């Protein structure tokens, strides 16, 4: 099955504390500065690296904002360079940015793959979708989780897929699984430890 190649726009990001559920406001801020994102059905935002504090979520040191894009959309990634983003009352500043080629990894992890089903049905759906894509790998389902924002709730599970061949790994990273990529759902990134799915 042929899937359009993707790439990543990577920006240094600085800021202090962001809201626990920042994904919706982050996407809105990105589209405000780069409207072409809204027209890219495959565009998605890799979840930020954060740690929990009493005040909210702290950005990890040397954090990066990574936006996965279709190659046609990537031509305009510079629209996000050096922008200030307003995220639910918090401020993030992006650096100049660069494009980065997506690399194959045998083990990939998604923080949240959207699904309103129980774990058994979820894994059955994932297996069926992987078969459609021609991807072979072993599944490890993690914790059930959700994103709640105003009247919108996205439920799902974290998921590790390992023992992937190079071409299958790239295909999975290009295509993702499920809905709501713009909020970080169904986006797979390299994962080195498969014993802790949190």
Task: Provide a compact summary of the structure.
By secondary structure, this protein is α+β, with helices and mostly antiparallel strands. The chain is 20% helix and 35% strand. The longest helix is centred in the middle third of the chain and has 15 residues, at 119-133.
Key features of this structure:
2 domains; Alpha-Beta Plaits; single chain; alpha+beta; 198 residues
Structure in words:
Helix content is 20%, strand content 35%. It has 198 residues and is an alpha+beta fold. The protein has two domains: 6-100, Alpha-Beta Plaits (2-Layer Sandwich); 108-190. The strands form three sheets. Strands 1, 3, 6, 7, 8 and 9 form a six-stranded antiparallel sheet that branches. Strands 11-12-10-13 form a four-stranded antiparallel sheet, with helices on one face. Strand 7 (84-87) and strand 8 (90-94) form a beta hairpin. Mean pLDDT is 91; it is low at 194-198.
Q: How is this fold's topology laid out?
A:
Blueprint (H helix, E strand, L loop, with lengths): L5 E9 L2 E2 L4 H11 L10 E2 L4 E3 L4 E3 L4 E7 H4 L9 E4 L2 E5 L3 E3 L7 E7 L4 H15 L4 E12 L2 E11 L3 H10 L13 E2 L8
**Which whole number gives the mean pLDDT?**
91
CATH uppermost class of the largest domain: Alpha Beta
Rg computed from alpha carbons, rounded to a whole number of angstroms: 16 Å
Termini separation comes to 32 Å
What's the helix count? 4
Question: What is the count of structural domains?
Answer: 2
Structural class: alpha+beta
Which regions have little confidence, pLDDT < 50, spanning 5+ residues? 194-198
| Share of β-strand residues | 35-45%
CATH fold node name of the largest domain: Alpha-Beta Plaits
Number of β-strand runs: 13
Q: What composes the largest sheet? A: 6 strands, antiparallel
Please write the string of helix (H) and strand (E) elements.
Answer: EEHEEEEHEEEEHEEHE
CATH architecture of the largest domain: 2-Layer Sandwich
Helix content: 10-25%
Shape: globular
